[in-house]
Amino acid sequence: MAVVYTLLVLFLAVFVAGFVLLVLGAINFDFSNSEIPPGVNEPVKLRIIHIMLISRAVVGKILENIGICSQVNFVRYMQDRKTRRVDPKLLIKDLWFEKVPVRIYQPKASSASQRRGVMFFHGGGWVFGSLETHERLCRSIARESESVVVSVGYRLAPEHKYPAAYEDCLNATIHFMKNAEHYGVDPANITVCGDSAGGNLAAAVSQTLAGRSDLPSLRAQVLIYPGLQALDFNLPSYQQNRGVPPLFRERAAFYMLQYLYGNASNLEEVLEGSHIPMDIKLNYGKWVSPDHIPEKFKVRGYKPHVLLDCSTEIYETVKRLCEPNLCPLLAEDAVVQQLPESFILTCEYDVLRDDGLLYKKRLEDNSVPVTWYHLEDGFHGIINSFNTDWVSFPSGK
Question: Catalytic site residue 365?
Answer without folding.
Answer: no
